[in-house]
Design a protein that fits this description.
Elements (H helix, E strand, L loop, with lengths): L9 E11 L2 E10 L2 E8 L3 E7 L3 H16 L3 E2 L3
């Protein structure tokens, strides 16, 4: 399944946002018709997209990615 065009998808939830120096990353779930897509995004680009199911395994993968980035110095962004 290919990625969905930005204009066709609607953000549903931001799972987490991290910052390192002046860089920011967000892990956001988008909805397109009857499917979900997970995107790892910077302020200027989409870095990663993949099909997303609301299953514990997928949520665990996003948390593992977040933990890995935090070990490398990324910090939670305050709203």
């Amino acid at each position: 399944m290919g990625s969905v065009l930005m204009s066709d998808a609607r953000p549903v939830a931001t799972l987490w946002r991290l910052a390192l120096n002046d860089a920011c990353l967000s892990c956001t779930v988008y909805r397109h018709d009857d499917s979900f897509e997970l995107r790892l995004e910077s302020s200027t680009a989409v870095i990663l997209t993949e099909h997303f199911d609301l299953q514990p395994r997928m949520l665990a993968r996003t948390e593992a990615l977040r933990a890995s980035l935090r070990r490398r110095g990324w910090r939670e962004m305050s709203d």
